[in-house]
Amino acid sequence: MLTSHPAGRRLLLEGVVQGVGFRPHAWRLAREHDLRGWVRNIDGAVEIVVEGGEEAVGRFCRDLVERAPPLARIDRVETSGRAATGATTFEVDASMGTEAGGSRRRLVAPDAATCPDCLHELRDPADRRHRYPFVNCTNCGPRFTIIDDLPYDRSRTSMQEFALCEACSAEYGDPGDRRFHAEPVACSACGPRLRLVTTDGAGIEGDPIMSAVALLRSGGIVAVKGLGGYQLACDATDETAVAELRRRKHRPHKPFAVMVADLAAARQVAAGLGSQERALLTSPAAPIVLVRARRPAGLAPSIAPGHEHVGVLFPTTPLHHLLLGELGRPLVMTSGNRSDEPIAIDDSDAHRRLGDIADAFVTHDRRIACRYDDSVAVIRLGAPALLRRARGYSPAPLRLPVDVAPTLAVGAELASAFCLAAGRDGFVSPHIGDLDTDDAVTAFMESLDHHRRLLRIEPEVVAHDLHPDFASTRLAASLGLPRVAVQHHHAHVVSVMAEHGLRGPVLGIAFDGFGLGADGTSWGGELLLCDWSHAERVGHLRAVRQPGGDAAVRHPARMALAHALDAGRFRDALAALGLDHDQAAPSLAGAKPSQIAAQVDAGLHAAPTSSVGRLFDAVAALTGICVEATYEGHGPMLLEQAAIRADAVEADRVRYPVTFAEDPASPLVIDARPLVGAVLDDIGAGVGAPTVARRFHDWLASVVVDAGASLVVTHGVRDVCLAGGVFANGLLLDRIAVGFEGRGLRVHIPRSVPPGDGGLALGQVLVAHARHSAREG
Fold this sequence. Notes:
By secondary structure, the chain is an alpha/beta fold. Among the domains are: 6-92, Alpha-Beta Plaits, CATH 3.30.70; 194-364, Alpha-Beta Complex (DHBP synthase); 540-748, ATPase, nucleotide binding domain (Nucleotidyltransferase, domain 5, 2-Layer Sandwich). 34% of the residues lie in helices and 21% in strands. The chain has a ten-stranded mixed sheet, with helices on both faces. Strands 25-26-22-21-20-27-28 form a seven-stranded mixed sheet, sandwiched between helices. It has a five-stranded mixed sheet with strand order 4-1-3-2-5. Helix 15 (557-567) packs across helix 17 (593-602) and helix 21 (673-684) packs antiparallel against helix 22. The protein is globular and about 90 Å long. Mean pLDDT is 93; it is low at 97-101.
């Protein structure tokens, strides 16, 4: 018979272990295993002393980690023996070292969607929190969006304005309750209050939920104050309402996300909802998940025009659950802003900026301390990947492969996000948006100041993009810190390397719309041999002129003509685009094709670009799929969706020629001229746009795999990193990954950060570290 000897043990747990119910978790386990001792928060960690039978102590230590609270993240457990003190109970002690400062960085759990227990209370008529739109506990609810400062105590959050009632206070102080030290805890007697107000701020009588639902049912648009900012909502089944929201928001084509009540409702709008998509939808992060749309799904046709996928998310707050429960239909749930502006978080700012979009505001008196948009996720190569990192994921740190000095990386100009890093932690900020307005720059600085204060990181160096005119570069210059300029595509590749712990060298395939190259020209179709500190351009797409700069991005027909001129097929392109040589055309921003040709020939405001994004634009225009772009990646996205609709057998009948150009200045140049000719031949022969789109994707995947396979042999590498905004394209990503893996290579893609510029700052951090370390060495 085994005997259980007395044992004493001290444990110190680091990670996201404060504010997530870890102390009551330890208290309950100690009672379950009949152990004695105590647990307390101490300087950003949790300290536990436990005494009892050796076997029971062992089970306690195992369960402590394996059954950790849902929002906890344990990064390190330090265990040591300890002489038994003869304690007779297990207590939750007062926290130690809770003053600001301390030797450890305090990590905060991201905001989390409503947990099943709170949802049950919300729906239970017998519960005192029945229909209370702010129900939460230690397993869910607001976190970073209400925190003013750390340590995470109620007095340092926007909940400080709400004094606990007697019932909530009793829950807050009871370690056996799941609301023990849940800082946002509240009820209808003591917590935030919901209101429905008009656009001029006047209150609307009656139940705010029911009145808002009546407005939504009648085709109205409602601004809803969510966790990290305002959202705009309308009935997703009402085409008139959706079209009106597009008109008011100045968002004519970019897809809207759809919020559904539960999995049953998700299955009504999504086809083939897999286990991983279901897991993402129901996770505490509750991101928008891109899934194949069901046809017909009952959604308004203009929810996602031209797209085979739809972005679906579950309710992220009790308020959303109440709205959907009463409406009984899906809701469009989109950012509370005009296109490309930061989302509104302040009530007065929301009324100023959204007053001519919304018909009414569902608001409340809990202040939002930090702006957070919704995250967007998708399944790529059999696992989740983020296309936008925000609510539910940020500010959880990413584990870096090396210790770094306190560093700030400011990203680029579009899809802006910064990264604060120190030690092994890299904190990628939530998605902020394009830095092309004063409001966006202000939002960036506010978020940076908030994160820097809460994370206690005072950067010693700042990394930024190589482009001197980016707003982010100017911001970096204004900080008065030592600066490291990082080439755009190098940062993209190193971002993937950082996430997967790769030191290099690797072959990086960096495809996007634009990044300033090391030679001062526009890059975007790059094959790079990379380690953290250096990037060698070992291949690229043949450059063509980009007539009119950004005008060519908004009017892809300009790029179609530029590529056709390079391929010697200008007249065929005119026919495909339906243009007359000497007649001004709206698709060319009012220019004549002859003027575009002269502009390209003279190189006047027509800098050369190797951008794959611009090649996508050209093919999208030639096929008629997209002749005017109203959002970033418009043409490439629609080209991918068209390719998905194509008949694979028909597309496979023809393979576009894979060719490489001779260029003594570069080891390998991908030549798109024969491709453009083949595309125009197909169009002239009446081949449908989906088939051409599919053949184009197959061509690009083939040329990348052939080029990459040659380069890895030449340079002796086995790891390939796919980076840049083009790799938001799942069809292309799958084909390239399968091709490389078939050649015996290891393929790595971004997962925890976006493939585009929203993940750029993570790579900038490691490049800055490597170069700074090399200088000091």
